Amino acid sequence: MKGKRRGMCSPVSSPSATSSGAPLKSNVGGGGWCKSLSDCLILGPKVSRNIKLVQTPQYHHLQQEKVEEREKELEKQKEMKSMYKMRLERTQNYLRYCLQVAQDNGFLELIINNKEKQQESINSSTTIIHATSSPQTPPQQQPHSDITYLISQAKLNGWYIEPHEIEMKEEVAQGSTAHIYRGKWRGYEIAVKCVLPEFFLLNENGVSFFAQEVETLSRQRHRFVLQLMGACLDPPQHGWIVTELLAMTLKEWLHGPGKRRKERAIPLPLFEERVVKAMEIAQGMQYLHEHKPMVIHRDLKPSNIFLDDSMHVRIADFGHARFLNHEEKALTGETGTYVYMAPEVIRSEPYDEKSDVYSFAIILNELLTGEYPYIQTHYNPSKIALEVAENGLRPQLPEQEDEKLEELIQLIQLSWDEDVALRPSFRAITSTLTNIHHKLIRSNI
């Protein structure tokens, strides 16, 4: 019959039987269509086998890449586990020490007795409240109460900015908690650090951290510290920090644009220029450490140091900064960036402003060598942290070809010493670098 439908795949040679047992000859090799499902199934494996042979090398290559990725990830997880285990042990030891000190000095008993008295007071207050016939609604807590004072100070001193006053332009940088935009305010070119709303919504202390960063910047008046122009103090939507616009970081000036790599992207700046940059950073940090109360930066690194139009430094990004009273110590874990982080910070031990001195030593060595710290090791950041904290790993020092490097190398080694007490103050560092700079000037005359 002419209009009869045929199977929709190529013919296959295979005898089959009808329900009555009579053989049914399929159109094998005769150019016809297959008459049954079995005909199609016979052809399938043959075609699949041919394709598989073509795809096998690529398939193996992809599998090998996946295996390598998994091995790297596994190695990273092992390193992280070792580091966190080390930190946990250190923290436990420190807590035991604190407990012992409290017990030896009678503080522990006072704390326990005070807690019991507080509990008795709470219980008696609860009884009184339950006895009243018409309980009162407790007063509502002021939201953002930690930022209220800052808002009043900003309005009083003229640096409170309404969001509509800022003309936003293009985005110039992105971070994990904020995006930075170029903008204009009252005719002045500015940088606007817009803290992401998610930072406030997902972090119960987000407003406090934001207020602390703004307050830290608002108190600084130094030529080598980033200048605050103003702020929008209405988180979560308008947590904006407005500063002078600076386009280049120390990292870009020293290494060029892009990520960490061994090969230089740009020529190494002149030696004297690099010493001047180190001297200016030290002066800015001396100002912060001698501020009342002291400001410790806690995340000092080349990407947080900017350069102005005259190529002078500006220490920036006070998101991790903290005010520290006289002889006070801060206890924290992962505050800062592993590559520039002091060993005592990695180990979650008490630390003070000398952790900034350690970070500066890594930067000074980076300025002298022109190389990223630990670039020769191929370690990832968590492995670097583990080696720094446990085995005293430090970046490779510059080759001492000239005696002018000798004094600088000694300064670096002192500044990143494991013994915090041996690390010099920024006042001493500034003095040393100033003398070295004067010698360089005299030698060039």
From TrEMBL:
Protein name: Serine/threonine-protein kinase STY17-like
Entry annotated with the keyword Coiled coil: yes
Biased composition annotated in UniProt, kind: Low complexity: 10-23
Pfam families named among the record's database cross-references: PK_Tyr_Ser-Thr
Lineage: Eukaryota, Viridiplantae, Streptophyta, Embryophyta, Tracheophyta
Family matches, as PANTHER family: OS09G0443600 PROTEIN (PTHR44329:SF11), SERINE/THREONINE-PROTEIN KINASE TNNI3K-RELATED (PTHR44329)
Coiled coil: 60-87
Region (Disordered): 1-24
InterPro entries: Kinase-like_dom_sf, Prot_kinase_dom, Ser-Thr/Tyr_kinase_cat_dom, Ser/Thr_kinase_AS, Ser/Thr_Kinases-Pseudokinases
Record-annotated Protein kinase domain positions: 166-441
Provenance organism: Solanum pennellii (Tomato)
Keyword Coiled coil: yes
Gene3D superfamilies (UniProt xref): Phosphorylase Kinase, domain 1 (3.30.200.20), Transferase(Phosphotransferase) domain 1 (1.10.510.10)
SMART domains linked to this entry: S_TKc
Keywords assigned: Coiled coil
Gene it is expressed from: LOC107027716
